[in-house]
Amino acid sequence: MNCTSCANSQKQYETYPLYMKMTASLFVIITICWGGIMYLLWPGLANISPMVAYVAEIILGIFPIIMWLMWIIMAIATAGISSFNMIIMRISNRFLYIFFSVLILMGKIIGIDKDRISQSLIDLINHLVELNLYKVPADRLLLLTPHCLQKHTCVHKVTTDVYNCKQCGQCQVGELLAIAKEYNCKFVVVTGGTLARMMIKQAKPKAIIAIACERDLVTGMSDVFPIPVIGILNERPCGPCFDTQVDIERIRTTVEKIIDKDAPLGE
Questions:
Q1: Shared domain check, 218 and 197
Q2: Orientation angle between helical segments 16-48 and 50-79, nearest 10 degrees
C-alpha cells in the first residue's frame, strides 16, 4: 500500500466526531419540536385539570432528558474523560443506533453522503471499543471477512473452509489466513449476513474484527451487539463486491491489541 493510500485509509478512521455532531444537531431539533408539542398541549390539559397537565408534561419531558443523557454519556466516553459501566455504555450505544436512519435522511438534506455518515458511526463504535478494550484469548477472537476479498477467478472454495486457500498471493485472503495461523485466532470468509451470523453463533467469539463495506458493517455491528466489534472498511479499487482489498497492517495491529497472548487457548 503506497503512502497516499495509507493517508486516505487513516482519514477514514478519524471521522467519529461527525456522528456525535449530527446526533447533537438532530437532538436540538427534536427537543425544540418536543417542547412545542408540550406547549400546545398545556392549555387543553390544564382545562381538564392542572394536576393532569403537570403530570403529562413531566412524563413528556422524560424523553428529551433521557435522549440528552445518553448523548452526554457517549460524549464523555468518546472524549476519554471517564469510563462507565459496560451495561450503561451498551444502552447508550444502542440508543444512538436508533437515530441512524434519521441521520441518513438529515444528511441528504444538508448534503452529507450516506457512506460518510456510515463511516462515522463505524469509527465511533471502533473508538469506544478500543477505549474500553479488554484482552481475549486468541481462539475467542474471530476475524470475519466477505468473500469479495477473494480473487474472483480463484477456484478454491474458502467460504466452505478457509484452509482451502493456497496462499498464492493473488489476493489478501492468504495474508489474513497467515495472520490467523500466527496468532491462533479464528478466521472465516462468508458470502453474506446470514452465513456471518451462523458462523458467529458457532464460533462464540468474545470479540470480532469484521471487514466489510459501510452498509454491511453498520448492519452487522448492530446485529451482533453486545459482542464488541472493530469494523474495518474494505477498499474497492474494482468497484463494490469485486476483488476488494483491506489494510493488512491495520488488521495485524488490531489483532495484537485484542488478544491476550498469555491466556491459555480454549477458555
A1: yes
A2: 170
